[in-house]
Automatic annotation (TrEMBL):
This is Uncharacterized protein. The lineage of its organism: Bacteria, Pseudomonadati, Pseudomonadota, Alphaproteobacteria, Hyphomicrobiales.
Length: 266
């Protein structure tokens, strides 16, 4: 079905289904034009085009099945070989660029030359099993780059061991390792007071503390807890929760405080 007028486009998009389906009809002969009669004489060009189509189809299949651990056994071997060789060419290209930057006669250049030779030999004697392994390895490398890094966090058990009388039994401790110094300073400031820490975790980009009394609030303890809570929050907004770097060039939002290097760390 081909839509050739503005009225037909609007009908297809806006009309009831019964009316839109009436547009499913052959194109009139007078509107069709022959653009070529002879077969293409460039066999190499046709072969390259077919290879690209196979490669695109194979990539589509891979993406659709990326949640599965193994390769789909129904993928034709020709597509497997095309994908594997594409990965090999990409890896060879990377190493050639690296060798150009470091120099062929350097130790690093010699190592890269050996790797390039191995990749070439692997491409010459490619079988289906090896092709599947190459594709799986290539996909794993891509997945590792796309997957967000996980942030190292403070061990709650170590905090409880260090401050045994300060944390409530059901206290929540969920803090990135970059805020270790800030958290320790806060706990050291209140450890001799009649208070308990019920929550220590990231909230709205800052280190959020909830400090309560062990019994009834004493005026001095209340003031100290309020001061420490506010100071901890303010300090954490200037420090990367992942690495502890303090910088005005931080990448932070209302959801997290990070330096530029760890902006995407979760």
């Amino acid at each position: 079905m081909l839509l050739t007028t503005e009225d037909e486009w609007r009908t297809w998009l806006e009309a009831p289904i019964t009316g839109a389906l009436q547009l499913q009809r052959p194109l009139p002969n007078e509107m069709m034009k022959v653009v070529a009669r002879d077969a293409c004489k460039d066999a190499d060009c046709c072969a390259r085009s077919a290879s690209k189509l196979h490669l695109l189809f194979g990539l589509t299949v891979l993406l659709a099945g990326c949640e599965r651990e193994g390769m789909d056994p129904t993928i034709p071997p020709a597509i497997l070989f095309g994908l594997a060789r594409d990965i090999l060419r990409n890896e060879m290209g990377k190493r050639i660029e690296q060798r150009r930057a470091t120099g062929r006669d350097t130790p690093e250049g010699a190592r890269l030359t050996q790797e390039i030779s191995r990749l070439v030999d692997l491409g010459k004697d490619l079988d289906e099993t090896t092709a599947r392994q190459i594709i799986a390895a290539g996909r794993a490398a891509v997945d590792s780059k796309l997957a967000p890094q996980k942030m190292p966090r403070i061990d709650a058990a170590e905090i409880r061991e260090r401050y045994p009388d300060l944390l409530a039994d059901d206290a929540q401790v969920w803090v990135g390792a970059g805020w270790t110094e800030i958290l320790n300073d806060a706990f050291d400031a209140v450890r001799d007071s009649a208070v308990v820490v019920r929550v220590a975790r990231e909230h709205c980009a800052g280190l959020h503390l909830i400090i309560g009394p062990k019994a009834d609030w004493l005026g001095a303890d209340f003031d100290l807890a309020a001061e420490v809570t506010e100071r901890t929050w303010s300090r954490s907004l200037q420090v990367c929760e992942t690495c502890g770097q303090q910088s005005a060039e931080r990448a932070w939002s209302r959801y997290r405080t990070r330096c530029a290097e760890h902006a995407e760390v979760r």
